[in-house]
Write a structure and sequence with these properties.
The complex is a heterodimer of chains A (about 80) and B (about 400). Chain A has about 80 residues and is of the alpha+beta class. Chain A is about 25% helix and about 30% strand. Chain A contains 2 helices and 4 strands; from the N terminus they run E-H-E-H-E-E. By secondary structure, chain B is an alpha/beta fold. Chain B has 2 domains: about 240 residues, Type I PLP-dependent aspartate aminotransferase-like (Major domain) (Aspartate Aminotransferase, domain 2); about 120 residues, Aspartate Aminotransferase, domain 1. Classes of the chains: A alpha+beta (about 80), B alpha/beta (about 400).
């Protein structure tokens, strides 16, 4: 599983980082995005709809990972990449 | 001889349209005729009072209300705040829950949270509220066995149409259920009145003169006499809006509504055609774009779309430099951290958002120029972000 750490980045950069990783991923690959921008989760869902990928779920980032001094609530959004064959 | 600069194309008229020429004329004459305090008994005060009453009467006709139901406020935001606060206080023995669609104007949602408990009803991908869910929640009020679980609703709020994405709401259906349940319904017609026929099912109706070419600094709230309410602010002769309003602004607002309604149908047909043109050209000529809102059942003058991998602030700034004034619901342009709650509730892309509201003087040529320029501007902003090929 790849991780895109987009904490502290503003829209549309988190989605852009995710798209770059997804572009090099295989069909069925899972990617996790960590983000603090409130627009990230709705925008990742909209991006997945527009690109045919699947959002597997979203949850608050567990404490312990969030130790880089950014105290805004972070979310984790998990995405499964679909490649048309 | 100097060459004229290329004219600005104003496409962000929501809530702040350019003044209608009739409003400008009325305002100028009222500065002479209606400057005095309408509460005074002097000849000047009485004249101001007559002009204020004439404005209320004229606004009432435009709203489909009776004159005594119409109250003038200092802004559309103040109208919505007072409607929510006044009704929740008046009905506090019944309950303090405010039931609203998730896409109501921020002023309604904020007033609900401030005054009582806000409960929102979800919307579909076009931004239309789940009417069955809203009706079910209102109807619960009547069955005693449901009362243990659901908190009683003090006020229901549903906009006539969404001002960000244009979609009409099922006001008649929700209004009938609210009426049957004995719950007052606040209808925000701030984005629709002056552009389309007004809603009929309301207990409180808010309308925004700035949206139809009237001045800013004045708002309109109509309240049916059956509505139980109480001020949660100090007593004043103007019980809804302490201190009263600017008589010239009120009169100009009424004059602008009259003028807008006089050729409303013609203006609606023209702008509906222009909006359909923009929606079609944007969808066809801009790659990776989400054109949002109901394609048919919508306001005639509002268009919204979001461009993937585009920074909304960079896009609105670039369009501004090209001579086009547009608005955006993207977080990076609103001065707040949060993206548009409307776009998020619909599941639409919130970044790279452009929001247009066409005022009555926008020409077909303006629309074509905008559509000609847009794809190149979007491509340049995307290239700056390195989004090519994603």
């Amino acid at each position: 599983m790849s991780i895109v750490d987009a904490r502290g980045l503003r829209c549309p950069v988190p989605v852009l980082r995710l798209a770059k990783v997804a572009a090099g991923a295989e069909d069925g690959a899972e990617i996790e995005v960590w983000a603090t921008d409130p627009a990230a989760e709705p925008d990742i869902r909209a991006w997945a709809r527009m690109r045919g990928h699947t959002v597997l779920g979203a949850a608050p980032l567990e404490a312990g990972n969030d130790d880089d001094g950014d105290h805004r609530a972070a979310v984790v959004v998990r995405v499964r990449v679909s490649r048309p064959t | 001889m100097t060459s004229a600069p290329s004219p600005r194309v104003l496409l962000e008229a929501a809530g702040h349209a350019p003044w209608h020429p009739a409003a400008r004329e009325a305002f100028a004459s009222l500065v002479d005729q209606g400057w005095a305090d309408p509460r005074r008994l002097s000849a000047e005060g009485r004249r101001a009072r007559l002009l204020l009453e004439a404005a209320r009467e004229s606004l009432a006709a435009g709203l489909g209300a009776r004159t005594e139901e119409v109250h003038l406020t200092a802004s559309h935001t103040q109208s919505l705040h007072a409607a929510v606060r006044g009704v929740v206080r008046g009905r506090r023995r019944t309950g303090t829950t405010v039931l609203a669609s998730a896409v109501e104007r921020a002023a309604v949602l904020a007033a609900g949270r401030f005054t009582g408990e806000l409960e929102t009803v979800a919307v579909d991908a076009h931004g239309r509220v789940d009417a069955d869910a809203m009706v079910a929640r209102l109807t619960d009020e009547r069955s005693t066995d449901q009362r243990a679980t659901a908190r009683p609703v003090a006020l229901a709020a549903l906009q006539h149409a969404n001002g960000e994405v244009g979609t009409f709401q099922p006001v008649d259906q929700v209004g009938a259920a609210a009426r049957a349940a004995g719950v007052p319904l606040l209808v925000d017609a701030g984005a629709s009145l002056g552009h389309v026929p007004g809603p009929e099912a309301w207990d409180l109706l808010a309308a925004n003169p700035g949206d139809w070419g009237g001045p800013s600094g004045v708002g309109v709230l109509a309240v049916r006499p059956r509505v139980r309410w109480a001020p949660d602010w100090p007593e004043d002769e103007d019980e809804w809006f302490p201190g009263g309003v600017s008589v010239p602004a009120a009169f100009a607002a009424a004059t602008a509504l009259d003028a807008a309604l006089a050729d409303r149908r013609e203006s609606e047909v023209r702008r509906r055609r222009q909006v359909a043109r923009i929606r079609a050209r944007v969808a066809a000529e801009v790659p990776d774009v989400d054109v949002v809102g109901d394609p048919e059942d919508r306001l005639p003058h509002v268009v919204t779309f979001s461009c993937l991998y585009v920074d909304g602030e960079a896009l609105t700034s670039a369009l501004d430099r090209e001579g086009f004034a547009v608005a955006s619901g993207s977080a990076c342009t609103s001065g707040s951290e949060e993206p548009s709650h409307v776009l998020a509730a619909m599941g639409a892309l919130t970044h790279g958002n452009v929001r247009l509201a066409l005022h009555r003087s926008v020409t077909d040529e303006d629309v074509e120029r905008f559509c000609d320029v847009l794809p190149g501007v979007v491509a340049r902003v995307r290239d700056l972000l390195g989004a090519h090929g994603l």
